[in-house]
Each structure stands twice: as C-alpha cells, then as structure tokens.
Design a protein that fits this description.
alpha/beta, 5'-nucleotidase SurE, 257 residues, two-stranded antiparallel sheet, SurE-like_sf, cytoplasm, metal ion binding, Stationary-phase Survival Protein Sure Homolog, Chain: A
C-alpha cells in the first residue's frame, strides 16, 4: 500500500483517549492520518446524528462536539482530505456479538463510512470488568495497533472490501499477546436484564460481561467472542444495510391488506 493512503481516524471514547492516540501513532507509518473525533466520550451512542456541531482544532486533528457518526460526516464532507479508508477506535472495551452492532459508537462510525461507499475498520480491545475500571495506557493497545495497521496496509489491495463493507476487529486482553488473526462472525449470544429498584429507577444490565470475565460463554468456534477469549484477534467482515430475503408470507399479507 502506498504511503499516499489517506486515513480518517475517529472513535467514540473521545479524542483524548489513549486508544485513538495509539492508533494515530501506528497508522502514521502506513498513511496520512486525519483525526476527527468526539471532544468528549460518546460511547454507546450508536448512529445518533446531530444537525449542527462545534469543531475545534486539536493537535491530532479536529475535536467535534458530537457523536462518532457526526465525526465521519463532518470529516468526509467538511474537513478533509477525503480518505481512502476510515478507521474507528481503538475502543476501550470489546464490541462483540450481533447485538452491539447498532449500539456501539465505534462500529457506527464504520457503518456511517460504509454508507458513503468507503471501506472502514472498527477496532476494539477486550478488557475484563475490573480492567475496564482502570485507566489504560497507549502500550495496552499494541496488538490492536498491529492488527489495524496490517489491515490498513493490505486490505484495500487484497479485494477484501469487494465483498465486505466494513471490518469489526476485536483484540484480546493486553496481557494475552497474540500473533494469530481469525475471520469470525458476530455471536448470537445475548443476556440483558432489567431490575426495578425501590427509588423509581430501573437498572439495565448486560450479563454477557460476567460471562466474558469468567471465560464461560457458549459461543462456538468461528464466532467473534470465542476467538477473543481464546486469545486471538477477531476480524468479522460485515455489510452495512440491514436486509432480508424475499418473504412469501409477508407478500401474502400485503396482497390481502
């Protein structure tokens, strides 16, 4: 891949996060990197979109008072240069399973790019619940940087994006260094619960995190969650539009409406 590769880098943890700094430092070895990222943490905002956002210059590029999806649109349409590739991350915490694809701000930035017809990569680092509560350092993202720079350098010319519109990359815990990358599919596993409290509130809880902490998930080989728990870099090739096959039963209902 030519050093003329233009990369737009964003995230959802905010422009001051060590994860985006780590990717910026690594990706500058394979291309020209422009950062357009949220000024503050925008985790789990999905593809929420604003009608107007403030922008401020930052040492890495531009800080946007908005969501990751805002950042992609602003970067592509107003700030430039127009990229060959969009990278989102590196997220503090994994983005694994089908159910997170619409929730995650990191993945949503990649999806936003896909709707522009641009190849994109979302990348996240798995941490246990205890590790997540601590501050991370740039060095914690070493495997994520290695995997992302490798894909940025080689995926465009390899034909990967002729079938996939974006890649969802997840890397193992920082203390589980790996040199194995596997192609996966998002897991079907889902275990959300809600508890009504006595103070007029309801607590929403994702129990998959406890299962991940214990390494006790039912996901079979070939799934993203299984790969990461096994200490491998997971890469899921995905498409952005939500589509289904032609549905005869619904055709019949529509005809009799």
């Amino acid at each position: 891949m030519s050093s003329d590769l233009e990369i737009l880098l964003t995230n959802d943890d905010g422009i001051e996060s060590p994860g985006i700094r780590a990717l910026y430092d690594g990706l500058t070895d394979v291309g020209n990197v422009t950062v357009v990222a949220p000024a503050e943490n925008q985790s789990a905002t999905g593809r929420a979109m604003s009608s107007e956002v403030a922008v401020h210059e930052h040492e890495l590029g531009y800080a946007i008072a908005g969501t990751p999806a805002d950042c992609v649109v602003a970067g592509l349409e107003a700030l430039g240069p127009y990229p060959d590739l969009v990278v989102a991350g590196c997220n503090k915490g994994a983005n694994l399973g089908q159910y997170v694809l619409g929730r995650s701000g990191t993945i949503s930035a990649a999806v936003e790019a896909a709707f522009f017809g641009l190849p994109s990569i979302a990348v996240s680092l798995f941490l246990t619940s205890e590790e997540f509560e601590r501050e991370t350092a740039v060095d914690d993202y070493e495997t994520a940087v290695d995997a992302t720079t490798y894909l940025a350098e080689h995926a465009l010319d390899s034909g990967v994006f002729e079938q996939a519109e974006y890649l969802n990359v997840n890397t193992p815990r920082p203390d589980r260094s790996t040199d194995e990358m596997v192609v996966t599919r998002p897991s079907h596993g889902y275990d959300m619960t809600a508890t009504r409290n006595g103070d007029g509130r309801i607590t929403l809880h994702d129990r998959m995190w406890e299962k991940m902490d214990a390494g006790e998930v039912d996901d079979p080989p070939g799934t993203d969650r299984r790969a990461v728990l096994d200490g491998k870099v997971s890469v899921s090739p995905l498409t952005a539009p939500h589509t289904t096959e032609h549905h005869e039963a619904l055709d019949a209902l529509a005809e009799t409406y």
